[in-house]
């Protein structure tokens, strides 16, 4: 099993490894996967008041393809609006990284992580609106 | 001494052929190339003589009293098949129950599965957390219809050495045959078919610095005389037990490798053990939350199977790409299932995914061990920095209590 150059590149030079403050009201946190499955991704987005993702960070427990998929996701997220971000599909990630069939599920998990982060952000925004509406 | 990249630390998968073995084999390719079964001319007689000498040496390696008890095969997979299916077919009037363990090599497990489809009953004995079979479990499992017990000498993933002598005492007293897949243990841990009451044993050359494509099955001829149904028909070679032209160069190489082990094995194992401990201690001193899988006491000298918590095995292997090792992670197996051996030992799936198997051997050097230790330490730390699980652990979160949104 040899790795694609792009996967190796993301592993050697991962983009945006790190942690955002999950208590920040403009941060959405997605945590998907399970240690028992060998794949856990945490993906976080920081959204400006204008709805643009100004920062994204990830940490992943998983194989090289999983690390690359989540690293790539954070790269793509930055600069997009939340709506644009929710259109990112796992197939795009898999194609960009030349993932073999047996690793496609890593890109699926990355898509799940993006959606989970967006959902968390939206939930927080809704709660904030509800509070300020009172 | 400079290090040659890539570094090989996967001696359980295969071993390089010792240069002395290559030298011994060469004449049999193009000078003494006769078919050992050719009875009518010197080419055949020369080959036959080489095979005969080889038989004696391999017999000596395992303590067999009669060289005719060594049947040459294409390797241990074939030997396992021949032992299990051959015995089952012959003794099926006497009984249809076979006992083996959950940590056996697939050649044993899949042979048993096939027999189950044919109506045999197979008991798969569990192992403890330490990766060892309990002889009492064997004793309890033996019944009136049991014809064969098959327990490996040493496990290929965690290197644990099974209590073959104790099991042999039990099987001998109950009149049941004992087969042992001795592939990983030969020359590395004591193995004597007479002392241990072993009736059949599978061997292969390529795990002991010999060539691939040749192995043997030890088949006891006395007290008791073991009979089996040949699985390869056509010519009646190997005393009617395994037809097919003998791989003379391979057999000669196999025997030379055996000779080297007989002469140098003891000192070699001490050296390899010291290197293994050096690696283990370096890693333990620098890294927290790492766990050795399997009994340290009953273990092959060159095996180190370690789980690095919070880091996944395949990512580790990619990180240490100049070092050849293997992993119990699902990501590294074709079936995407984590190691069944670690699972049988009760190692949690998360730690199974985080396991790396180092296999040290004859040509491993101290410089290599130090280089690998330092590399592994650096890469584990780097991967832990990228791991959400490590961060959660550092925050004091009990990962076992988290509800994961698995996909």
Helices and strands in order:
The complex is a heterodimer of chains A (134) and B (407).
Chain A: H1 5-12, E1 27-34, E2 39-47, E3 53-61, H2 64-77, H3 82-85, H4 90-97, H5 104-133
Antiparallel strand pairs in A: 1-2, 2-3
Helix pairs in contact in A: 1-2, 2-5, 4-5
Chain B: E1 7-8, H1 19-25, H2 27-30, H3 42-62, E2 70-73, H4 76-91, E3 97-101, H5 106-117, E4 121-125, H6 135-141, E5 146-150, H7 164-174, E6 177-181, E7 200-204, E8 215-219, H8 248-286, E9 290-292, E10 303-308, H9 313-319, E11 323-324, E12 326-327, H10 340-344, H11 349-353, E13 355-359, H12 366-385, H13 388-394
Helix pairs in contact in B: 1-8, 3-8, 4-5, 6-7, 8-12
Distinctive features:
heterodimer, A: 134 residues, alpha+beta, Sufe protein. Chain: A, 5 helices, 3 strands, B: 407 residues, alpha/beta, Aspartate Aminotransferase, domain 1, Aspartate Aminotransferase, domain 2, 2 domains, seven-stranded mixed beta sheet, four-stranded antiparallel beta sheet, 40% helix, 13% strand, globular
Describe the structure.
The complex is a heterodimer of chains A (134) and B (407). Chain A is α+β, with helices and mostly antiparallel strands and 134 residues long. Chain A contains five helices and three strands, in the order αβββαααα. Chain A has one domain: Sufe protein. Chain: A (Alpha-Beta Complex). Chain A has helices at residues 5-12, 64-77, 82-85, 90-97, 104-133, and strands at 27-34, 39-47, 53-61. Chain A has a three-stranded antiparallel β-sheet with strand order 1-2-3. In chain A, strand 1 and strand 2 form a beta hairpin. Chain A is elongated and about 55 Å long. Chain B is built from 13 helices and 13 strands. Chain B has a seven-stranded mixed β-sheet with strand order 2-8-7-6-5-3-4, with helices on both faces. The mean pLDDT of chain B is 95. By secondary structure, chain B is an alpha/beta fold. Chain B folds into two domains: 7-12 and 266-397, Aspartate Aminotransferase, domain 1 (Alpha-Beta Complex); 19-261, Aspartate Aminotransferase, domain 2, CATH 3.40.640.10. The chains are: A alpha+beta (134), B alpha/beta (407). Chains A and B meet through strand 1, strand 2, strand 3, helix 2 and helix 5 of A and helix 9, helix 11 and helix 13 of B.
């Amino acid at each position: 099993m040899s790795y694609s150059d792009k996967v190796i590149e993301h592993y050697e030079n991962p983009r945006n490894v790190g942690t955002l403050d999950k208590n920040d009201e403009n941060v959405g946190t997605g945590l998907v996967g399970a240690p028992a499955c060998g794949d856990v991704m945490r993906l976080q987005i920081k959204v400006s008041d204008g709805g643009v993702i100004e920062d994204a960070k990830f940490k992943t427990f998983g194989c090289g393809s999983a690390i690359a998929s989540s690293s790539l996701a954070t790269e793509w997220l930055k600069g997009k609006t939340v709506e644009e971000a929710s259109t990112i599909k796992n197939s795009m990630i898999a194609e960009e990284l030349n993932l073999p069939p047996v690793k496609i599920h890593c890109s699926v998990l990355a898509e799940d992580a993006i959606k989970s982060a967006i959902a968390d952000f939206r939930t927080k925004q809704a709660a904030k609106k509800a509070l300020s509406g009172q | 001494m400079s290090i040659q990249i890539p570094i090989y630390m996967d001696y359980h998968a295969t071993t390089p052929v010792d240069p002395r073995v290559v030298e011994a084999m060469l004449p049999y390719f193009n000078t003494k190339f006769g078919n050992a079964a050719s009875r009518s001319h010197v080419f055949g007689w020369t080959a036959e003589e080489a095979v005969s000498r080889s038989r004696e040496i391999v017999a000596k390696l395992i303590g067999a009293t009669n060289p005719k008890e060594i049947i040459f095969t294409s390797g241990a997979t074939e030997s396992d098949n021949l032992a299990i299916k051959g015995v089952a077919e012959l003794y099926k009037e006497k009984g249809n129950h076979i006992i083996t363990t959950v940590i056996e090599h697939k050649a044993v497990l899949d042979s048993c599965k096939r027999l189950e489809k044919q109506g045999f009953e197979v008991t798969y004995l569990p192992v403890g957390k330490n990766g060892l079979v309990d002889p009492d479990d064997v004793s309890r499992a033996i019944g009136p219809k049991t014809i064969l017990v098959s327990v490996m000498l040493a496990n290929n993933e965690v290197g644990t050495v099974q209590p073959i002598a104790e099991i042999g005492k039990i099987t001998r007293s109950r009149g049941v045959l004992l087969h042992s897949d001795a592939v990983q243990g030969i020359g590395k841990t004591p193995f004597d078919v007479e002392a241990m009451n072993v009736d059949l044993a599978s061997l292969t050359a390529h795990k002991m610095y010999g060539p691939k494509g040749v192995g043997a099955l030890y088949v006891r001829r006395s007290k008791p005389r073991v009979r089996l149904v040949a699985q390869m028909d056509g010519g009646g070679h190997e005393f009617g037990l395994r037809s097919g032209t003998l791989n003379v160069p391979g057999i000669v190489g196999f025997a030379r490798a055996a000779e080297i082990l007989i002469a140098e094995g003891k000192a070699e194992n001490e050296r390899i053990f010291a290197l293994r401990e050096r690696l283990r201690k370096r890693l333990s001193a620098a890294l927290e939350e790492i766990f050795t899988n399997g009994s340290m006491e009953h273990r092959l000298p060159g095996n180190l199977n370690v789980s690095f918590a919070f880091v996944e095995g395949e990512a580790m292997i990619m990180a240490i790409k100049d070092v050849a090792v293997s992993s119990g992670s699902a990501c590294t197996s074709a079936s995407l299932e984590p190691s069944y051996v670690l699972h049988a030992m009760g190692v949690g799936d998360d730690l199974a995914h985080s396991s790396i198997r180092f296999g040290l051997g004859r040509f491993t050097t101290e410089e290599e061990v130090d280089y690998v230790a330092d590399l592994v330490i650096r890469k584990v730390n780097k991967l832990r920095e990228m791991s959400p699980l490590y961060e959660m652990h550092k925050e004091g979160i009990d990962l076992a209590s988290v509800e994961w949104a698995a996909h």
